[in-house]
């Protein structure tokens, strides 16, 4: 079948390539003509504008947007004016599912189908395929199923879940119609919320291993922390690159994120050059807000989000308040206190 | 080579079987004669007591203990009296690494080598192999390397980490000498701490998906929670079994724990019959305590542990205190308050 | 001056009484005629409807709403149709500050001033006075300052903050103009978010004290938890009612919430009859969502909110998932495992 | 009665002064002769060594140690050799309660009573009195009760808890015999654990208020955070010094820690000169470890401890791991990503 692709960044371009490899036709557009050019060389039909893309395609059209979430609203609006009833507009980017709910309702009035697709796979997706979480009306999702099959990883070499047999279900091929409009991005949002938690679990654990030599370093230990108790139990100089490689084989926590961690630590064991200021995209935040809305406790997911905030010093004023309080009630000055020999003066808090 | 195996529960028996499959000899003992019998049928030499096991083996001996952590101290003590200098005692169970540090020092005085091995792999280990985290003196670890290779998964079908080439390193075969005595169980402890965090991330995320229909259920919603705001955004009836299956293919969070989750939800989508009282073994606790000792922040790992405590109602008194406070300051009674129509009375906190 | 009071629940009625005690006139209305009657006996002028209340008052009017947040929107709408330019509408309830921002903008178009006031004080406010956090345009806030002074606690017996001298600032009298529309309820929202955190800190700490006898109770200890290590250090039978009373005098954590805790525990030391299902009103949730929006880490405030969710079993599905995972990877069954004597079988995770 | 005071830092000296003000006799010693001198001027009897202090006092002696926890063990040992059966040794410092349990058992063998006292009060204790949490044998605690009464705040101006009447209980005078040896420091430990949580609740809440102008600052907003959504709701320029002053009057969260916060913010509204590297003493750590031991969930107390660790960059390696992972799976580079205009490339996670 024919599909339009708007947005030819790394992900959009690679998705288009997977679609073409499966034998479908792609009409492509990007604000950057060079990106269009590159895809045309790979066999796509190029378009110089959204209008040209729409006019080039035959009805009913299916157009996949793969653009930054901040731009999606405007492009949807522009395309809505160009499309005809029966056409399908697909948002494969990282939109907030709430925007899907609103956009789907608005487009429905004009007879245009709206499908939201959460896409996971990262830089490896071209070869591995992309995991697709789909929301939207049954009819539209069914119409684009060949495209979903082309993009998804398929069965791959993942062992079949015990108890499943017969024909492969869509979720076993790597795509799933999760529910009505918004459901795709909702599931993707939670996916990313989980991802934050899993990443944090590994990061915290590796940080313990990295500091398992605290008893050796004790002599140089900053006086601003409480003195290390039982230093004899923290005498390990652990090689975190080797450990993360080890865990990839046979351990309960083997996972793709661990594969990546092992690769990163092998390439750069001391993680030199990384400041550890960890960005966050919207999904982790939306996940926590959704959980709060519906009253579901998510201490782990929230903690993993807050760690990222703190990594960027967003906890600064809070920490200053704590230091200021400590000065007030205990006369604690914010500096190494270990050298204060004055008996009994120190910790009256 | 020859190895003694003490403790023939599921894990000990399966490890012995993997060792024999690799062509080594096993002398086995368990308090339960039937367990010994079963291994003898598989080719092992049985022993009726620890003393018999020791006398049956030739020097220098290597004896692997695979027994509950609570019993290890006594058995080590008993074996210490039976073994000779140069023998190697291996604790492959779930001991606290601090016990390793103490036991190794004590046995060293008698010339006995002590090796601690953290073992991960669960019920699938017989076929998949076990991931082995090893602590102890170089000489002793080198001596048992053939056994470690027999038990470990080997290279398997895990893709090689980019940048690694040449001969496979031990960690690429599934075992690693992590450091001196205690290092093996220390790394295993942190492994389990991470496991708790990863499990919690999945559990919390799936709980959000399970409750994404809160807007549909709003009518029956308990009055004791704040009323759901923006119910229109929580209208999704998500199939968590299908979603967890989906994520196994191509998504960033694909992992063995996800495989197990998909299997569990496929077999029992509503998780009927599970009360959700989640046990914890020692490792999760020791991980948090170690982090506190060395001053490493582990909000995610700690939260995942505390969730388990709370799942068993260990938060009861705290919650009663909160209810009691609320009664005091706001006249809040602990019951549905939504039916109180009295204007303005409700939330003066 | 004259003020209208709509909503004569406990808080509305008591606020009206404090206003009248200060020599001002109150015109009052409630859907419940008996509530109006009670205030009339105390000297207020009663009204049988919003329209009557408005027509009874002279221009420019100032009308204070003290009604459940869910009803505020409708009443504001109705009053907007009855009021005249220059009138002041005050929302003293627990509205979301976002509603204030919207309502203020809408009313401004009609020339009506809107003032949002967060009110803290609970059941003790009639005698103690209410702490008032005020948002709105300067002119309107200035106009109602005599009323704010009547309701607020005034200087009271609170020691003056070191460095402050001269005439008392408004915040030293218990009211503060925090900023434009919404600022009052925003500050009140954060106040309640802090309150959740403080309450949780006390509740968790008291729970530790309550269980400081775990070493004594060890024999009956449930097998589903890890065995208590070092039971000799948990042999304390602490009287939490006495301890909370003690801390009221001279300790760093003396506070009004501690006063209430001491009162609650003195009246009911075992907290009999409290199920510990802790409700939450909107403010705690809004606080966490606001922090997420602006990227401020609030692990403590969020944890205190999630504890309340969990106290109502909103963590049920997550915990079931955890139990299901454990069954899968370790063959752990969800029941006491301590009686399993099978060697080595137990914890292969 | 007569009491010996060892350690004349700020707290030891002030406690000695309160004792003398109440009419008791103090024999004092400190390693710093000037500190002894100062107390002698205030009426104490000075001693030049522990031996001289012991020989100066009449039997049975009661000696109060107010020295850094790290030195207590040695001094107890030295004094044990000097004291006679029936003497009482009091540790009023910040010892770990576990040390009390051990020391009390050891001293009991020599007939010496050991009393552990947790002391709260900080720099204000001289005037306000100190809150005393006492552990030890009944006989010894009874013997020193006059001293406890002298040091404790007494009834003060704290309102009596409803339901209490008749003679004041010890806890209403500011001291309490909490249980056997260790109970005093155990209760003090939990007190400090709670303190950490309460402090964090205030600090986090004030951080939200401080950043309530995020919508105004949005233009300069770092690209490394997700773009602020709904900036119109974060337009508040809140004066945190005034708000903390306000809350002292009539609000639910009025407390001594709030008094201190208001004082600190009044003196230094922007908290200039504070780096926000927050120290922690041992009690917060011991509290979390005790909770973990007995299986009590303390997410809030633990989070408040971990925030302090993170404030000192102890989360560095964890954050580097997160950045490294993000580079791997999404090609995210650790720098402002907002300027990347490439369509669709950005967030494939």
TrEMBL record, chains A, B, C, D:
This is 6-phosphogluconate dehydrogenase. Gene3D superfamilies: N-(1-d-carboxylethyl)-l-norvaline Dehydrogenase, domain 2 (1.10.1040.10), NAD(P)-binding Rossmann-like Domain (3.40.50.720). Its EC number is 1.1.1.343, 1.1.1.44. Keywords: Gluconate utilization, Oxidoreductase. The keyword Glycoprotein does not apply. It is an enzyme of class 1 (oxidoreductase). The lineage of its organism: Bacteria, Bacillati, Actinomycetota, Actinomycetes, Micrococcales. One of its GO terms (molecular function) is phosphogluconate dehydrogenase (decarboxylating) activity. Pfam families: 6PGD, NAD_binding_2. It comes from Microbacterium resistens. Residues 184-336 form the 6-phosphogluconate dehydrogenase C-terminal domain.
């Amino acid at each position: 079948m024919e599909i339009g692709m708007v947005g030819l960044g790394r992900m959009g371009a690679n998705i288009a390539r997977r679609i073409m490899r499966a034998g479908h036709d792609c009409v492509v557009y990007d604000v950057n003509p060079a990106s269009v050019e590159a895809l045309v060389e790979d066999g796509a039909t190029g378009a110089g504008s959204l209008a040209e893309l729409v006019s080039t395609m035959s009805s009913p059209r299916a157009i996949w947007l793969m653009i930054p979430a901040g731009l999606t609203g405007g492009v949807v609006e522009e395309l809505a004016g160009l499309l005809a009833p029966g056409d399908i507009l697909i948002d494969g980017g990282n939109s907030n599912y709430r925007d899907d709910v609103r956009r789907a309702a608005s487009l429905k009035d004009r007879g245009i189908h709206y499908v939201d697709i959460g896409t996971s796979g990262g830089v490896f997706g071209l070869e591995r395929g992309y995991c697709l979480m789909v929301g939207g009306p049954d009819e539209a999702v069914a119409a684009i199923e060949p495209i979903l099959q082309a993009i998804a990883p398929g069965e791959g070499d993942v062992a079949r879940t015990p108890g499943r047999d017969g024909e492969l279900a869509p979720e076993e091929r790597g795509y799933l119609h999760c529910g009505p409009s918004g459901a795709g991005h909702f599931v993707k949002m939670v996916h990313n919320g989980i991802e934050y938690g899993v990443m944090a679990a590994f990061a915290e654990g590796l940080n313990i291993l990295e500091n398992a030599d605290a008893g050796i370093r004790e002599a140089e230990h900053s006086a601003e922390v409480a003195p290390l108790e039982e230093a004899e139990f923290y005498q390990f100089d652990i090689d975190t690159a080797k450990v993360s490689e080890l865990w990839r084989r046979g351990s309960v926590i083997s996972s793709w994120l661990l594969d990546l961690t092992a690769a990163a630590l092998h390439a750069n064991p001391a993680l030199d050059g990384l400041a550890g200021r960890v960005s966050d995209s919207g999904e982790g935040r939306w996940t926590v807000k959704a959980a709060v809305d519906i009253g579901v406790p998510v201490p782990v997911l929230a903690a993993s989000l807050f760690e990222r905030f703190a990594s960027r010093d967003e906890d600064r004023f809070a920490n200053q308040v704590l230091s200021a309080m400590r000065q007030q009630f205990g006369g604690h000055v914010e500096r190494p206190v270990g050298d204060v020999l004055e008996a009994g003066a120190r910790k009256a808090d």
